[in-house]
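User: Could you check the structure of this?
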Amino acid sequence: MTKAQTLGELKKTKYQPKSIQDELANNLRERIKSEVPTFDGLHGYEHTVIPDLERAILSGHAINLLGLRGQAKTRLARKMTRLLDEWVPVVSGSEINDDPLNPISKYAIEKIEKLGDETPIEWLHRDDRFFEKLATPDVTVADLIGDVDPIKAANLKLSYSDERVIHFGMIPRAHRCIFVLNELPDLQARIQVALFSILQEKEIQIRGFKLRLPIETQFVFTANPEDYTNRGSIVTPLKDRIGSQILTHYPHSIEIAKAITKQEVKYSVAAKKIHVPELAHDVLEQIAFEARKSEYIDTKSGVSTRMSITAFENLLSTAERRLLISGEAKTCVRMSDFLGIIPAINGKLELVYEGEQEGAEQISFHLINQAVKTLFPKYFPEIKKLVKDNEEGPYDRLLEWFYGDNELFLEDTLAETVYRDTLLNVPGLEQLIATHQPKCDTNEKLFFMEFLLWGLEAHKKLNKYRTLEGFQFKDGLGSLLSGF
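Assistant: Sure, the predicted structure tokens are below.
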């Protein structure tokens, strides 16, 4: 469509005014018919959240996205802009994006009456039709809806009841746009009440003066279930006016979680020098799954997917730092590098009382060990609790070496050659990898060897001690006897 510069030119085009709800629904219908993804990049929502959101858009509903932190609620709302027309015309100079063929403000109506077909037209891109506001206790009605501007009233010599003296808030300025109000329960109840008439009757009240403005805004609210009990709630009449409430969720599988992390992580320049085994990705994501079911973590607060993203970035940085110290050209992630992700975990977890007593770092380390323990049987023979005396276990040769008063010490910053030789010198360790992971990539063999040791410690077959320089592996039985 040719971009008209005046109202007269616009009338000669095929442009027809329509509400933003119709605009979103029409473009969504075309995408579904053409089998074009509507909300790509949102892994794990293909059969749950996205169909619900599409139904809400087709129904023209105001939407409330309800879910714990780090569940891509705001991203969902931002991606709705793709369903808008690329360009829409507005009356030049209008504060509230007046449609030239359907103006609602006094400014635009009077301007069109005065200039007629010569009224100048501007074009608004869909990326500029997204408004976002975080609901905090200090948000006022004036912020959202507007207030009387006494200076404007004095300069124009107008009554306060005249629409022209109003300084419009964010919602009127979001006319024909998507307006996202994040963390809705944090908004004071009296402010929530002010939204009633806008959602239902398209009316706003400023300083007691009722003003009918048929504002066409696509409202998207986000809320955290935790807020309903801890900080506030959505008042019932407002919930009644929100057409669809859609529940978001965390990834249901490690594969989905890995896809999200790989998509979102910010790779440094040095990342090309660092090989990350798929098993390392699995361990990283399993930590979040362990945290979501841990007795030490407040499940109502949730464990954000941002934890895995920042933890992966720290994992790469830990390996990069080792490269800088050793001066080597490339490396593979090690299990000992997971100690470097603890700062990324600490700030993302809300601990319950027992967890607070243990300490954030201890809980983070515990979650890493639990992740290793959970994944261990997928790669190596299960460690049985009860073993017959005459039954030989797959780990006997390796454990006998540790029981023979031998120990293994792995410094955090060992050079690649020293790290490799240290692990290869442990009898039976390399053979276990060859037997149970015969297709293991050469670059990942050392990682699997260290993972095996961590797994044996997690199942209490070995003892692992953390020192300032690295990790020490010793036999569990010997340590127990030495205590006596």
